[in-house]
Amino acid sequence: MMKQGAERLPAKFGFRMCVWTIAVGLCVTSLATAPPGAAAQSRAVSTWSGPEAPIAHALAGLRSTPDDVRARETKRLALDIRALPAGDHKLMLASDLASLATEGDFGRDTLQEVATTLAGALAEHPAPESLPSGPYLEVAQLVRYEHVQASLSSPRFAQAMSELEADDQQRQEADFTLTDLEGKAWSLKSLRGKVVLVNFWATWCPPCRKEMPDLEWLHQHFQSQGLVILAISDEEGSKVKSFIGQQGFSYTVLLDPGRKVNTLFHVRGIPKSFIYDRTGKLAAESIDMRTRPQFLSLLAQAGLE
Prior knowledge:
By secondary structure, the protein is of the alpha+beta class. The protein folds into 2 domains: 2-167, no CATH class; 175-301, Glutaredoxin (3-Layer(aba) Sandwich), CATH 3.40.30.10. The protein has 12 helices and 9 strands. Helix 6 (108-124) runs antiparallel to helix 7 (134-146). It is globular.
């Protein structure tokens, strides 16, 4: 998942990762979402111990790994990180892996290994109270939305879980009105009776672009059954319109130039999707990129099959 916001830092919790690297004498963006090889180059090799360096290098290239190999590689990296000595570096690597592991469907077993590794790293070496709670939110999201288990006795983890629950309560009550690329206004509450998929994305976000053809397929396949896709971007309208025109997508794209709706939905990273059933109930959501089978499973929770 990619960090969203004015900073354009390339990670779900890019600011948090910068703070963490300050703790070891550096300030760089996360491995998790840099172009292949870029993150490995951005952190001097001398900052990693012998066993850490190959893990950092593998994380930098993980997104370019074919999907049929990526699940196995992700699980291997989780186990390799788990074997490292406790400390800031282990926690950084575990957090980076967690932010990459949800970009698609790599299996429940893989996500469980990732969550176990990150929770263990936090148990061994809790994040200082003075730093943001990014790693705790990473674990909490895996537990709440990916339905894995994590054994972590920490008030900050409990606080992160409570924060996510509160976010979902606000999303359930949320309403907004935004205009599409042709200037037409769309309001969420006015679409009661439809199944609505609200998707937050950006043109610069690789995982967003990867899932967009599947969103188009869903639009074509389910539009007649009452599915409405509202894809929300906070970028300049001309840039979004040009991109959508080039790609030929036909589902509804809305503009959120002031990021008010992003803020309303507590969007910390993209892509992120929320699915409302025909009664307006928030029936399902995803914390990252989804594949077509994953989207179909989410829509089924809203009664659309």
